[in-house]
Amino acid sequence: MAISDLYSSGQHKQEIGHFANIVKIARADGKITDGEKELLIRAGKNLNITLEEFSLILNNLRKISDKSAN
Fold this sequence. Notes:
The chain is an all-alpha fold and 70 residues long. The protein has helices at residues 10-26, 34-46, 51-59, 61-68.
């Protein structure tokens, strides 16, 4: 099941897409530093991203990005 299938809310799908984009930026240099991780945690909370979604996005970024583009 894709993360975007968990919620029917268009708003939440948009929040997931925003968060996935932030993760892409953090990973641009191939790693996520401790400071970037703290920023991602704060951004995730502000965008109503659950811990499960947070983990799924970090581990499956390509799949999430493809889904949020649709």
